[in-house]
Design goal:
Ribosomal_uS5_N; alpha+beta; ribosomal protein; 13 helices; 4-stranded antiparallel sheet; 4-stranded mixed sheet; Ribosomal Protein S5, domain 2
Length: 444
């Protein structure tokens, strides 16, 4: 009651107990409804309560977020050219290394004003032994924070571009129960920020990770993972890839069984089979996928969209749709014959059907080109090579005229050695002197 009367005296001036209030005072007091209570002829005014919350962004955000808001630059400021040296210098967190209640004088203040119980024991104020190295430790800790230390990776561990994640290895997937992924390796193909507009939260930012995992022996899997933090997204994508494993046939443990065409969306890929030692001549995402699958020799040409996820999906679709030589022989009911350069293009039968068709059973309009049949009745569109620049010069015509007499002489010599074992004319039987190296017999 006394508190209320003190507030009354401050609001409407000096009032006397039992004195009748004036008209002006009553008019001013009536503006506040239900606030005047008559009690023993004493007007009592209750205070107006205003609800408010004892909270702000200082106790909502973490210390790291508050430090970032003070020391970093906003996106709008970064677009205008401000804060160019922010990434090179790290702000010092002066709270790091500090302990609440411990200062220069090593004294314990339990609860500051409230006693603190440790079990049944009352913690009292006491002075601890001095720590002369405390200041040196704090200064050293702050000096280490101020230096910018770029991440250093060995050339084997680096990705496609410097220290960025795409192309880097993040290890095998996590074990599931007793099953472990021994011999598997996971490579990051894509790591980017994505946004989704929510009705109540606005723009929701997440990190999207696209990875491929494999054991370099035909088993591989791809997956996409999203999370707020990049580490969580990578871990989620890696474990999902381990659960979506497929097996891919590899010819002689180094390449695909045949050339094929594959497509996903607007991305088209023409994959060509290559001999051993050729290497991986293709997009870097396809090369990374081939390394974890176990493919060592390949050529791939991409047409259309270069969306990374579409490239990998199209490539995996083509790998899963490829057919072995025996499957092609049984489907076509013809022998599958291979011509290899290292064998001097000697025909080698690699697969035979149970029953082979005869020449009369083959339709005239049937596709007999192996490459065209493997590509789904498609052919490679190759640009015609232009003749060299010197063929347009006048000196080239003079060279052709001079070399016309001796042209193809080397080829004729090789053919004669292969067929007859020596270089000779077709009239050698009739005219022995036409044989190379012939000498007339000496007269005796």
């Amino acid at each position: 009651m006394a508190v209320y009367m003190l507030r009354l005296s401050k609001v409407i001036g000096e009032s006397v107990w039992g004195q009748q209030l004036t008209k002006d005072v009553l008019n001013s007091s009536q503006r506040i409804s239900n606030k005047v209570i008559a009690c023993n002829n004493v007007p009592v005014y209750t205070p107006i309560t205003i609800s408010h919350r004892n909270t702000s962004f200082f106790n909502k955000l973490s210390a790291e977020a508050l430090w970032k808001g003070v020391t970093s630059v906003s996106n709008a400021g970064r677009k205008r050219g401000r804060g160019k040296g922010v990434g090179k210098k790290m702000a010092k967190n002066l709270n790091r290394g500090q302990v609440i209640g411990v200062g220069r004088d090593n004294i314990i203040w339990p609860g500051l004003t409230v006693p603190v119980l440790r079990g049944r024991e009352l913690v009292q104020q006491q002075k601890l032994p001095e720590d002369p190295e405390r200041e040196k430790k704090l200064i050293k800790l702050r000096d280490d924070m101020g230096n910018f230390r770029p991440l250093k990776l060995s050339p084997i561990e680096r990705g496609w571009s410097g220290v960025k994640m795409p192309g880097r290895s993040i290890g095998p997937p996590d074990p599931v129960g007793e099953e472990t992924f021994d011999g598997f390796d996971t490579r990051v193909l894509e790591l980017k920020s994505v946004f989704n507009m929510k009705g109540n939260l606005g723009r929701k930012r997440q990190i999207s990770a696209f990875v491929v995992t494999g054991n370099k022996n035909g088993s591989a899997g791809i997956a996409l993972g999203k999370a707020v933090e990049s580490k969580a997204a990578l871990r989620k994508a890696k474990n999902r890839a381990g659960q979506k494993m497929v097996y891919i046939e590899i010819f002689n443990n180094h390449t695909v069984y045949h050339s094929f065409f594959c497509q996903f969306g607007k991305t088209k890929i023409f994959v060509t089979k290559k001999p051993e030692g050729y290497g991986l001549v293709c997009h870097r995402a396809i090369r990374t996928a081939c390394e974890v699958i176990g493919i060592k020799d390949l050529y791939a040409k991409i047409e259309g969209s270069t969306n990374l996820q579409h490239i990998i999906k199209a490539f995996f679709i083509g790998l899963l749709q490829q057919k072995t030589h025996q499957m092609l022989a049984e489907e076509k009911k013809l022998h599958v014959v291979e011509f290899r350069k290292e064998n001097d293009y000697f025909p080698t039968v690699v697969a035979s059907p149970p029953t082979c068709r005869t020449q009369e059973e083959i339709k005239p309009n049937e596709v007999m080109d192996y490459t065209q049949y493997a590509l789904g009745d498609r052919v490679f569109l190759k640009k015609k090579k232009e003749p060299p620049f010197f063929t347009k010069l006048p000196s080239w015509e003079n060279y052709l005229k001079k070399s016309q007499y001796t042209r193809n002489r080397d080829k004729v010599k090789v053919t004669l050695l292969a067929e007859y074992g020596k270089v000779q004319s077709f009239y050698a039987e009739k005219y022995p002197e036409c044989v190379h190296g012939y000498r007339e017999p000496e007269e005796t």
